[in-house]
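Form 7-S
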Amino acid sequence: QVQLVESGGGLVQTGGSLRLSCVASGSSASMNIMGWYRQAPGKQRELVAIIISDGTTNYADSVKGRFNISRDNAKNTVYLQMNSLQSEDTAIYYCYAKQLRFIWYEYWGQGTQVAVSS
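Output:
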């Protein structure tokens, strides 16, 4: 079935940048929605950014102006460019995809750790 494979997590200093990538494989149809969520210790999982197949985007207020989401529909790949990273951005980041094939299917990546040192 469908798998989401993530890469790009790691440790960075405050003010640094990181780029996350996620490839959706094994799908017989394109993903309508792709995006990123994150979860910090003791907090609920929250939306970071999503992007629709037509290119429209939505960002959490906390990352607007710092993060940029993009996608390559031909490769079923979504990217998250993270700039001006802060310690508050430290979390496990999860790739997310949603696909309509008569009913909605949701897929999640395994998560990748992003740590920002203060």
